[in-house]
Amino acid sequence: MSSSRPLRVAIVGAGPAGIYAADILSKTDVEVSIDLFERLPAPFGLVRYGVAPDHPRIKQIIVALHKVLARGDVRLLANVDYGVDLKLDDLRQFYDAVIFSTGSIRDAALAIEGIDLPGSFGAADFVSWFDGHPDVPRTWPLEAREVAVLGAGNVALDVARILAKHADDLLPTEIPDNVYAGLKASPVTDVHVFARRGPAQAKFSPLELRELGHVPDVDVIVYPEDFEFDEGSMAAINSSNQTKQVVKTLTDWTLKDPSEFTASRRLHLHFLKAPVAVLGQERVEGLRTERTVLNGDGTVSGTGEFQDWPVQAVYRAVGYFGSPLPEVPFDELKGVIPNREGRVIDIDGEQVPGVYATGWIKRGPVGLIGHTKSDASETVRHLVEDVTGAVAAAEGVEAVEGDLDGGRVAPHGSPDAIIEFLTERGVHLVQWSDWEVLDAHERALGEARGRERVKVVPREDMIRIARREDDATA
Predict the structure, then answer these.
(1) Is the dihedral angle over the CA atoms 108, 111, 112, 113 positive or is it negative?
(2) pLDDT score recorded for residue 393
(3) What's the pTM?
(4) Residue 293 half-sphere exposure, CB side, CA atoms within 13 Å?
């Protein structure tokens, strides 16, 4: 085994975190060959399957990610399911180092009575449905007239907005046809968002919140009695411009005259109301909340004052949670791969040689998409230090003296070896040139319908189109 070959690195997960890591690693002083693995037939992860279709500004992140993969120095190997098609022991045969960037795709649990009743859903599953994720059913039970959304973050706003918005107003977006049909038939009239804490503790971004006020034929209703500002609230407002903008927008809405509310649908924002039970026998029939009071430090306490709300569906948007990966350490309480600044550690706190993590699976589902770039820089810096024996900075900064030929430990370091391995296992690989075919197909579908693009949803159709096989359908 020659140390003169490029360092072989596998990155598992082709969302923003994985692509940022690949880009940063490619710009270090280490000669490197990078393969980017993705479970789905399409790259871009959270930006493609976790951002609401009516947020094209955020989806523009794909443009930057697209440029990285289009350069040709990072190889995409999509439709490869880690844990099914290969495992860590397999990867270590072909790569000197492995970075996991698999994100957090599960809904965090909410331990209240009735949460498992039919008609109670996780926000992550609903987001995957309206974003056309190939692994979720193509239909969704949109049968409720009144809906509760639990949470005070941007995901809660996305879910509430998509539920309340008229389907025709989503037509200019890349919304799949089946999602449009489902939302078009929805009988919803009222969507209620419930937050345990006060307006100053809400985690909405100002822009996302303001967008609610511009949704056609949807009234945003807030309640003055829910507005309480204690010492901690005032400190948060005075120390954060974002919090100040959110509170101002919410406060302005309290001044609206009820006679102005003439829309056919209403989106209600409730604060200081903690969900304590989902009501119903056979399915969701209501939600019980408890009035809370601020404690002065950002926390709340219950008051013993309860209220029942007649809703027929409940969506919990209380956070995402990571999923364990075969042969990789996992923290079941935090939902992350245990690590020290990206270096994966085992149950004894010892570093697992050659294994790293970045993104939400490294630090948990907090922060915006752009925050994963600094995350990736930290992880890549430590990987470079480990393989060179030197302290090296990422993103083009010169490394100090070190053994730049070190770290080559994989028995099979040829880039062709992993392709042969996966082909022998019957994996239908989707590479970058294949994705470009699928991308063009989706754009053509959109153009034919007078839209930006239309996503191909079934996995088998995505693979057939990407691989240029006959009888490809949308």
Answers:
(1) positive
(2) 42
(3) 0.92
(4) 5
